[in-house]
Amino acid sequence: MAKLTKKDIRDILSSRFEDDKCTKLEDLPKPSIFKDIDKATQRVVKAIKSGENIAIVGDYDVDGVISSVILSTFFDDIGVVYDLVIPNRFSDGYGLSLDIVKRLNADVIITVDNGISALEPAIYCKENNIDLIITDHHSIPLQVPDAYAIVNPKQEDCSFPNCEICGAQVAWYLVAHIKEKLAIKYNLSSFLDLLCIAIMADMMELKDMNRVMVKRGISALNRSKRPAFEAVKTFFNKKSLQSDEISFLIAPLINSSGRMEDAKFSYHFLKSKSLDDAMDKLEYIVGLNNDRKEEERLLFESSLKYAKEDENIIIAWGEEWHEGIVGIVASRLSKRFKKPAIVFSISGEKAKGSARGVGEVDILSLIEQQKEILLGFGGHKGAAGVALLKKNLPEFRDRMYSAAKTIEKSMLKASADVLGEIEPSAIDFELLEILEEFEPYGQKNPKPSFILRDIFVKVDRKIGKNQNHLKLILEDENTTLESVFFNYDKEARRGDKINILFTVSKNDYRGLVTPQLLIREII
């Protein structure tokens, strides 16, 4: 097999964006293209001008928290009074509920990043002369709420050209349209620092308009005067924040409060007015995130026994497993075993689960096939939520095992990210520059992986608090390469010759930048 040259790598990565119609912010689709956005905006403008009671209802994940921050900050800046509810995962459950509607004294309720399944609350709103405006991006169910207006790009009769955008982007578009109708000056790009986090955290496709917004957003993030981001840089001693920091540092931190206690902690952290205030809030959130990591470790270990070698899907459950952690555990299981996974937390007679797909597997479609025994479900192709009665778990498991038999092995592999074999000598600073040029990596633009064959292990060392990571110094006759295998599942010892599948990252040690291999698999 011919080895990849740097030109090959550049050409392959460039080809991913050949069909992009949006290559700069000026190319972004206009707000007016959204179905119902005119109707929604006119109602909000009327409420603002007549001093009616407005309420915002968000969600407890990163996208929902940031959606809430964007809309509420805009209202703050233009002097609009509002109520805000971010549902508590444990006491309120997901999204707009009847109980939340009844708690609010509102003439207009605006949902952000939720609401498309809120059938009963919509009926109550209509009966009680409350105008419900739903802004969401989740898949459209068979029955849609009878709301005053629904702004969701996934609606069949919506002309918006990019349906794979996150809830925060939909909320931002509503802000843009309200600003236009009010005929006021307002810097919409001031939210790009937040939007890039929401887009990446919600695993949206990083092509076309999403790619543009994330690239510009990362630049904005590093110029941002938002005290929350100043606090992150100070606390973690970061000179800059790049896409990896969003995925592995900022997003998990923002998510942790909703997973462990209440997402309002992250909402208030992002809206901090001073660095001291932000540092105080960040310290608390870091503590929650550390608790989350320990809970995740214990739950992951408990779930390993549910991985059956002869089944194409993992279905795991446990009594009182932490509801805020099951999604992360499902994600870890799917990555570890390269098959979709669903993990349930059982409380009383009900079980709530989080599902994660892998490769080209549509996990939501598989779940939907079992709808007659479910209490509810929703989400995306790659990630979904599901609820059912505890007594139906064994039947659900057996039905999912059967449905997953149709999954072909090729669907389990995200093959688009494996570019091919490479020479050790080609892994240098120039390659880092090429890879950096095509960032950010994520959905539909996966981080490139490469294969090295017959590379000699010069040094092997176990690292980490639990000695669960492997550091290897690899060598051929002309090149020495540092590599790390996080949560390794196969050992390599000094003197071995190994084949590896890996990605390349930048190791910046005291100003000296060198490539570092992140091993995905010893093959």
Set out the fold topology.
Layout: H1 6-15, H2 37-50, E1 54-57, H3 62-77, E2 83-85, H4 98-103, E3 108-112, H5 119-127, E4 131-135, E5 149-151, H6 167-182, H7 192-201, H8 208-223, H9 227-235, H10 243-260, H11 264-270, H12 275-303, E6 314-319, H13 326-337, E7 341-347, E8 350-356, H14 363-368, E9 376-379, E10 383-389, H15 393-404, E11 418-421, H16 429-437, E12 449-463, E13 469-475, E14 480-485, E15 497-509, E16 512-522
Parallel strand pairs: 1-2, 1-3, 3-4, 4-5, 6-7, 11-12, 14-16
Antiparallel strand pairs: 7-8, 8-10, 9-10, 12-13, 12-15, 13-14, 15-16
Helix pairs in contact: 2-6, 3-6, 3-7, 3-11, 7-8, 7-10, 9-12, 10-11, 10-12, 11-12, 12-13
Description:
With 523 residues, the protein is an alpha/beta fold. The protein folds into four domains: 6-11 and 414-522, OB fold (Dihydrolipoamide Acetyltransferase, E2P); 34-224, inorganic pyrophosphatase (n-terminal core) (Alpha-Beta Complex), CATH 3.90.1640.30; 225-302, no CATH class; 307-412, Diaminopimelate Epimerase, Chain A, domain 1. It is 38% helix and 20% strand. It contains 16 helices and 16 strands. The strands form three sheets. A five-stranded parallel beta sheet has the order 2-1-3-4-5, with helices on both faces. A five-stranded mixed beta sheet has the order 6-7-8-10-9. A five-stranded mixed beta barrel has the order 12-13-14-16-15. Helix 5 links the parallel strand 3 (108-112) and strand 4. The longest helix is centred in the middle third of the chain and has 29 residues, at 275-303. It is globular. The relative contact order is 0.09.
